[in-house]
Structure prediction request, 314 residues.
Amino acid sequence: MNTTTMRTGARASVLALLVACTPALSAAAESPAPGAGAEAMPDTGTGRTVIADGHVDIGPRFDHGRWTVQIRDDTTKPATWRETADVVLHVKDTAKIEVPESKEFGFLGTPGDPVWLLPQVQQAGVLWPGWNSQEPEVAASVDREVNWRLTSVKGPGDFVLFLNGSFGTPKILFDGRKELPQETGIEVNSHVHGNWAFTEPGTYLLDVRMSAKTKDGKSHRSERTLRFSVGPQDPRRAFVAKSPAEKRTTPPIDADTAEPSDTNGPAAPLWWGAGVAAAVVAVAATLTWRRGRNRGRTAPSRAENAAREEGEGQ
Prediction:
């Protein structure tokens, strides 16, 4: 088999994989995960974790009454909810494909260009991330839906999250090349998968916000950063990277409750105390210098005062 035939076959298989997400498969992806929404989840897991294969979900959770965005790790038994800062989602080279020639997928790049794709339908050896609103307390208390917002994208290439609708027609949910923020809705007690596409290898940081109103009229909001390591680099490098949201020193204010929302950043503006201390030191140094100058001056003698008074009287 020659190289041209191999490339044509590879592109055809990629297109088949993308188009294979028919309404029937999409409906299966939106069905509840095994046991999701039914069991009482344990405490949040601890320790840094790189996940490169198997099923994970991103979603809101009430962690001891605190609304927060976490990652449900189904690669453990039982499943474990983890803080996003403790997880790197590894997009290995097994997820690397070529952009198909179909014009419908032109938003991924030029046909034949490489793209790392975590597909909507589970594939062996490739991470399968989705999103859900099925955590028991969330499913029971949220009114209608969760608002999911992408606020910033930091990475060496482009990021696109899209669904395959009827007849494989792509529907873009998030496109990091366009103006942000962008948002979509997650119906309460739902579980969905999509296609996560990255155009270059390296570390990607996606700042996201999930918010909702509960049936008691209260508003809830949480901002978190999703870490993806794409390609052959050491995925642990993504743990030390900082996104724009993580660099903020002051937590944002929830417009509905006028309370600081749950964020990745530190709870207090640390630079404020240091700035005030520096200002106090500067003022004290200026006052000391002025006093020194006054002490260095010699007081006028009686003769000098008399001569000045005589001159003023003439």
Observations:
- The chain has two domains: 3-245, 270-313.
- The helical segments are 3-19, 23-30, 136-141, 244-247, 270-296, 302-313.
